Amino acid sequence: MQNQRGCFITLEGLDGAGKSTHVQWLVDRLRDKGLQVLSTREPGGTALGERLRDILLSCDMHAKTEALLMFAARCEHVIQVILPALQQGTWVVCDRYTDASYAYQGGGRQLGSEAVQQLESWALNGLEPDRSWLFDVPLDVARQRLASAREPDRFEQEGAAFFERTRAAYHERVNTQPERLRLIDSTLPIEVIREQLGAQIDSLVSHWQARLTGSTA
Ligand code: TYD
Fold first, then answer.
1. How much is the pTM?
2. How far, in Å, is the centroid of ligand 1 from the Cα of 42?
3. Which domain CATH number covers 38?
4. 96: CA distance to ligand 1 center in Å?
5. CA separation (Å) from 43 to 12, 19, 101?
6. What's the pLDDT tens digit per position in 86-131?
7. Element housing 132 (H / E)
8. What is the pLDDT of residue 106?
9. Which residue, of 27, 44, 74, 153, has the greatest Cβ tally within 10 A?
């Protein structure tokens, strides 16, 4: 009987940084190790969250409204989906979480980190990821990759200055929380990235399993 909380993992990066390429791979790797894994995304992850996502990606709105809707979707996601899964011992892999709000709303939209921090502490019951990876690429690389992808959404249509601020805010998060949020150079070949990521995941799983064995011994 599992009685240990699952591990909460999030993936972050600018649009076009290549984060999505690695999500399913990461989930498969964890499942191959026999773990119960829930794969989800933000904004989204619940029926209400997915409706808010549609609005967020398509309707023009004030930056504060945008931040509030991001946290409305996240609040629902945490309470209805993420926390219950973690409590059952399931690992949760989430494509974006609060770091994205610090980066996009705090940095890109210039609301500042304090405003985001206030929303975070009010809405999330203190739930932070155990491990996060930032897929980092220079702006021109991200934009090049995006140009060859599908129709751009409301965020992807932003100009270079917005994404420079967003990237800088992500880097600030890495600097203040280096243990949790690890930077991955996403210009490297996919196999090299997977080697780096794989080693870190294996170590995370070993530690978790060692604690599990300890707690049931
Ligand atoms: P994403 O899931 O990366 O979309 P895609 O389907 O294009 O891979 O994220 C959608 C957009 O939402 C992305 O441009 C970043 C933005 N976003 C924020 O601005 N703040 C947030 O807190 C989150 C979670 C996402």
1. 0.95
2. 7
3. 3.40.50.300
4. 7
5. 12, 15, 10
6. 999 999 999 999 999 999 999 999 999 999 999 999 999 889 999 9
7. strand 131-136
8. 98
9. 74
CA distance 103 to 78: 20
In a domain, 217, yes or no: no
Q: What is the arithmetic mean of pLDDT over 6-14?
A: 97
What are the DSSP E strand ranges found in 3-113? 8-13, 37-41, 91-95
Query: 3 in a domain, yes or no?
Result: no
Find the 51 Cα to ligand 1 centroid distance in Å. 14
What confidence tens digit (pLDDT) does each residue in 139-148 have?
999 988 888 7
pLDDT at residue 16 above 70?
yes
Question: Which residues have C-beta atoms less than 6 Å from ligand 1?
Answer: 15, 20, 41-43, 70, 95-96, 100-101, 104-105, 155-156
15: phi then psi, degrees, rounded to nearest 5: -60, 130
Ligand 1 pocket mutation, candidates 155, 165, 167, 173, criterion most atoms within 8 A of CB: 155
